[in-house]
Amino acid sequence: MSMYGRDPWGGPLEINAADSATDDDRSRNLQDLDRAALSRPLDETQQSWLLGPSEQKKKKKYVDLGCIIVSRKIFVWTVGTLVVSAVLAGLITLIVKTVPRHHHGKPPPDNYTLALHKALMFFNAQRSGKLPKHNNVSWRGNSCLRDGKSDPGTTMKDLVGGYYDAGDAIKFNFPASFAMTMLSWSVIEYSAKYEAAGELNHVKEIIKWGTDYLLKTFNNSADTIDKIAAQVGVGDTSGGSTTPNDHYCWMRPEDIDYPRPVYECHSCSDLAAEMAAALAAASIVFKDNKAYSQKLVHGARTVFQFARDQRGRYSAGGSDPALFYNSSSYWDEFVWGGAWLYYATGNSSYLQLATHPKLAKHAGAFWGGPDYGVLSWDNKLAGAQVLLSRLRLFLSPGYPYEEILRTFHNQTSIVMCSFLPVFTSFNRTKGGLIQLNHGRPQPLQYVVNAAFLAALYSDYLDAADTPGWYCGPNFYSTDVLREFAKTQVCFCLFFFKR
């Protein structure tokens, strides 16, 4: 429906139906008028205008071309026209070939666009399974085509595909699901930017490669499930074992020939809820592909119900995942997954769950702590709060959601305040890099997540005609958030450039 209601120009430009119905009548009337005018006797002046002097006809001359006889005048004009046309065509061709050409090529991409190209290429380099022909990393090939089949203890025999983690060949489904959720969120909000950079189809292909694999990790055609494949491959070398695995044997994935165990979980709420978030967010990305989008939604519903029914952490009990990606809790994934499922389905039961005060309390929404406001593969609360603030800013669903949504909105404002240099929630390096992980390893993943949230929230405020937000009594414009995001990303680019 048009936002202006009826035509803003004041009425349709088309001819009205009543008028068009009289077109034949008008035509007949005009013909009658023409016939009436010509039926009147013409005086000598009128005859000279319309008919010409009939008594002064000149004798025409003709040219015999053998098969046809034409007027000499027409013949001369025809031949002359052809000659002039040929001369003009020759002159134009000569000018085109001799005048130097000045091609104005496209300007070179800026550093942000180049960084985007390289960031997406990383996913191509980390692909597992049978690679597509157009994969743009020449030194990668098909790898680990027996994932699932090489482990006789698992019932999931087709676990080919997905992404390797980083420097090894393990497939950790918990952080990989978070990566797909974040990529999908960026495409949902900034698809035009991806398209302008020539990367929209590429990033959608990257997401689909990940979600296709996630759908293999459980029975996605069922309405209820009792297990999920949480990980393929192991990396524990602490016991001095010489059994080949993905950390003991540092080798190309293409050369792996040892069995790769599959870690299954029957009580893994954090993993299942994160997978639900990834599949639900991706379903919005692929909404133009109705069949695939519905398949993703069904899978998201199934794993989220499993997460709610079979409570527990996927990395509990000192399992192999706990050594690398240990999950601290699953409450934040409940809020996160519920919010994404609401956006994907419009089902208010998911919004009721995501905004339940007890759930928010368990997720840590009402207290601080050293990692409060830090979005990561383990802690989704800050992302969920921004996502639900979006709902309040743009749709304002009102009762009974307004109170908790307002709380999430206020908490988002506090998180954004903590990113600013004037506050001391987090230390900074001498170069200005915010230390969201308090000096622990791998700082950049937390920094880029914070930069994304800051830029996104500033765009949300602008779209809602809100010029900024308050940190206590002080008001800050959205430009401050963009500047924070820009400086942090520039620091990361400088680090990689070195």
Automatic annotation (TrEMBL):
It catalyses: Endohydrolysis of (1->4)-beta-D-glucosidic linkages in cellulose, lichenin and cereal beta-D-glucans. The keyword Glycoprotein does not apply. The chain crosses the membrane at residues 74-96. Residues 112-492 form the Glycoside hydrolase family domain. SUPFAM superfamilies: Six-hairpin glycosidases. Keywords: Carbohydrate metabolism, Cellulose degradation, Glycosidase, Hydrolase, Membrane, Polysaccharide degradation, Transmembrane, Transmembrane helix. One of its GO terms (biological process) is cellulose catabolic process. Its EC number is 3.2.1.4. One of its GO terms (molecular function) is cellulase activity. Residues 1-26 are annotated as: Disordered. PANTHER family: ENDO-1,4-BETA-GLUCANASE. Belongs to the glycosyl hydrolase 9 (cellulase E) family. This is cellulase. It comes from Gossypium raimondii.
